Amino acid sequence: MSRHTIAFRVVDAHDADWTHRMIALYDDPAANRSHLVATLGESHAEKVLEMMRQGYILGSYKEFNLLPAEEPGKWVLFLGLGSRKQNSRRHRRNDRLRGLVAIAARHFRRKGVLRFAVDDLSAMGVRPDRAGAIIAEGAILGTYEFDLYLSKQKRQTEEVTVLCRGDKKALANTLELHRSIGESVCFARDLINMPSSDLRPMDFADQVRSIAKEFDTLSCEILGQSEMEAEHMGLHLAVARGSNAEPCVCILEYVPEGQSSDGEWPLALVGKGVTFDSGGLDIKGSAGMRRMYRDMAGAGAVVGAMRAIAACKLPIKVVALMPCSENMVNGESFRPGDILTSRKGLTVEVANTDAEGRLLLADSLTLVCDRYSPESIIDAATLTGAVRVALGLFVTGLLTHSEDPDEDEDFADLFTGAGRRAGEWVWRLPVDDDYKVQLGSRVADIANCNLDGKTGAGTITAAVFLKQFIDFEKVKRWGHLDIAATAFMERTAIYNRSPYHPKEGATAIGVRLMTEITRMLAAKRDAG
Description:
Distance between the termini: 40 Å
Shape: elongated
């Protein structure tokens, strides 16, 4: 798949040639005076401030006004940030600024302007190391288009110049890092948006192999059906029986330069890769089935995160497992009432064939514990519709567990902090064993889901199911991300909050979050 690249250039704000510019504005004219004067000069700045005082420019969030610059043939795009009070929390301010850069890139592109400038956001209180992340991600994610199947593609933004008033080196370094992260998000979006006719399990494996070839620090292993049988992955193989597409488990190992693949693995990522989900014999309705090629969004986010981790050269070993299968219907399909044996040895009664993703994850979670004994495991999956009921469209469901309660709280805090920095917010739900009673079975060790809708807690019981397959004698911490409500856009609600997401299609939620968590874990290890 081809990936569009935007060039980023850092120049001294005092020496920059005039070009088309984006400028963010608070809604209070007085709050904008100093940075307008610095950017536009006294005369032009006063004209803009007078327009604000007259009410022609309001500065409300996402309001845009395109006005001619005093330099002939150039334009200035003023974008509203809202009030200082609305931006008093840094993570909300930064997310809004990321969205404004996205709006600017799209608006200039519609006008045929493919090169523009933005200031370093220091007037808004943003440090150079954060400004680079905001600008690079805003421009790249905001101009993303899934156009692989269109006969004619739009022209794309070519270059963004950042007018720097502070540390040029820090700004340039962060721009480069987050350019790589943004491109990794777009790669994941392409995978998630791809129809299942072109992305069956082994096709996904080919994409994983292609990523491994990009970086010397990545190595790839693909477990096909025979290898999965040898690994006793009975749950995963049962789901795959209904399709003629061979299932697989994609394994990516990231080993930084100078480190060895031997020894401990600090982090494992696991992503659900159901490349098409018909629901199986408990079949979905036609409306619910149309977009089920996106049910591999967890695996897509994991491979995107691994690409970003390798591109950023993070100094921490990471292994990723992406179990892939279709959930289809034929004479060999697994059935409601079947009793399956997992890799771990636990037996599972199939209460519903449309709760198949957790079966794939369960075997791979056990496999990663047995092979790698990672300190921490993070899994991502479009697992339950219940998470949308619980949390809506704006935040991802988070469930964590550690045998050490303090460790558990610290791990959950890590997700919260990383989510705020990345703009991929999470909200924690409980994963107490009390909920296991809802997965009771008279004929097996556990059922794969709870059929009594009146008891609720579908997101929690799904996580409780997964928890049974993790060996906490080998693993210190586990975090589960239910991205079913945030992984793709079918309504404009998320776009309205975060305009760097597409109005329709995959968001690739999880890529930036897991990359940021990895960075924070690496920093924590380096600090001792």
